Amino acid sequence: MATINNAALSNVYNYFQADLVPRSSSGRFDSHNKKDLKDIYRSIVKLSKDEPVFLMDRSREVEEYTIHMKESALRFRSEVASIGGLDEEMAFNQKTAFSSDPSVAEVRGSLNGSSGSEEPENITLELRQLATPQKNEGRFLPENERDIPPGNYSFDVATGSSKYELQFSIGDGDTNRDIQNRLARLINNFKLGLTAQVEQDGLGNSALIISSRSVGDRSDSGGHFNISDEETSQQAGIVDYLGIRRATEEGADAVYSINDEYFTSPGNEVRINDSYDVRFKEAAPGRPVTIGYKPDVESMKDNIISLAGSYNNFIRATAEYVDRQPRTNLLVRDMKINSAYYTRALSGMGVSQEEDGTIKVDEEKLAESLKSGDTEEGLGTLRDFTKFALRKAGQVQLNPMDYVDKRIVAYKDPTKPHYANPYVTSAYSGMLFNGYM
After folding, report:
1. Shared domain check, 420 and 325
2. Does a structural domain hold residue 234?
3. What is the mean pLDDT of residues 238-253?
4. pLDDT in tens, 341-360
5. Deepest of 84, 172, 198, 419, by most Cβ within 10 A of its Cβ?
6. 24 and 149, same domain (yes or no)
């Protein structure tokens, strides 16, 4: 059995994310201004007035499904925003950033090609060192032996301003490997901002390895985390027995240069010259990377391909649940029918629809069409298609419960005015959070 103190409440929004692939943030494209939030609020109020009374299945499967749908819609919107697709005038006029070696540094960035703004100069980046986490590597102990008495044990984990106590039991038949596996599951399941795993040395020994999810140099604040058992409520001794008290690797900052000028960063994602969002992937001293913006035609082609890829990811993510949540087929079918209308008009640009509703782009044909300069009508169609796709994604984002099978109890009389019903919105309004504590 394990317990943690009240600080664990900060993990409440991570609960349903545990079985999902973490969604990376795209920074400025995930933020909202006051007007955006007011529009969302008004949409919820309007929706709650018209929504019928229904009984809903509250199973774990339904919870995972609705969060999956909402996250997929948010991801699509964010990816479209990165190519300027939220603004009709900017859509497909964005110049896209490039990296000469994405295995070292990936780059995201866009520049409105029609704004007349000055294009940033190319930069030369050299990544000397990645930002790394803290690691506490335990002692390698014989896997099938045990030299600590059975009983109830506990230890404290301090991360920043939070402190957690973890409790567990050791039975008569438990081995060192059993104990290490149990503690690894305990640490991983509690979402403490740490990862734990058991490693073997090939000689019949195993060790518990604990690492922080965060990276960077935190030596001034005592490290990313500290493990002790001097003041815990149960029996002490497990920390020193496993050897997990001491940090074997301190967290380190990323070290890089831009045009031969050196910088450090506490993370592996940096914004350079307010123009490029760069993610460091692999340290490569002596291997400079060029970062800049592509020419107009090439950028436009990349933006159209990116739109198709983002849309395909969205419709595939939606179609995953058609068998388990049949109402999802209404959304998939609507998307297929409407995208077929648009792709027929875009055949001259090399854009077509596949049987599963995804979009296929013939890159050579698209490049030839863009170079010819006769694309205004096609780009207008692409903008209309983008507006349609964003509208469907917005509906899913606002109310993913709309596609859950549910039992309708009563429809509201359309001839009478209705007040907002807070109990209706409570079923999904919590999922409007697009970040987690």
Report:
1. yes
2. yes
3. 95
4. 999 888 888 999 999 899 99
5. 84
6. no
Token output for 143: 């896997």
Q: Is 416 helix (H, G, I), strand (E, B) or coil?
A: coil
Q: What is the pTM assigned to this prediction?
A: 0.58
Task: Assign 130 to helix, strand or coil.
Answer: coil
Name the phi and psi angles at 41, rounded to 5.
Answer: -60, -45
For residue 250, give both structure tokens: 């301190």
Is 152 in the same domain as 79?
no
418 domain-assigned: yes
**DSSP one-letter string for 131-168:** -B--EEE---EETT---S--EEEEEEEEETTEEEEEEE
The secondary structure of 216-268 as a DSSP string is S--GGGT-S-EEE-TT-SSB--HHHHHT-SS-SB--B-EEEEETTEEEEESSS
Cα(170)–Cα(188) distance, integer angstroms: 19
User: Quick one: 329 and 227 in the same domain?
Assistant: no
DSSP letter at 22?
P
The H or E element that residue 403 is part of is none
Q: How many CB atoms lie within 10 A of CB 390?
A: 18
* pLDDT tens-digit readout, 173-219: 999 999 999 999 999 988 888 999 999 998 999 999 999 999 999 98
Q: Which of 220, 242, 264 corresponds to the end of one domain?
A: 242
Coil/strand/helix, residue 53: strand
pLDDT, tens only, 115-158: 445 668 889 999 999 999 999 999 999 999 999 999 999 999 99
pLDDT category at 66 given cuts 50, 70, 90 is: confident
Which positions ≥6 away from 341 have C-beta within 8 Å? none
How many Cβ atoms sit within 10 Å of the Cβ of residue 340?
12
- Strand, coil or helix: 325: coil
**pLDDT of res. 367:** 85
Residue ranges of the alpha helices (H) in 322-375? 328-345, 363-372
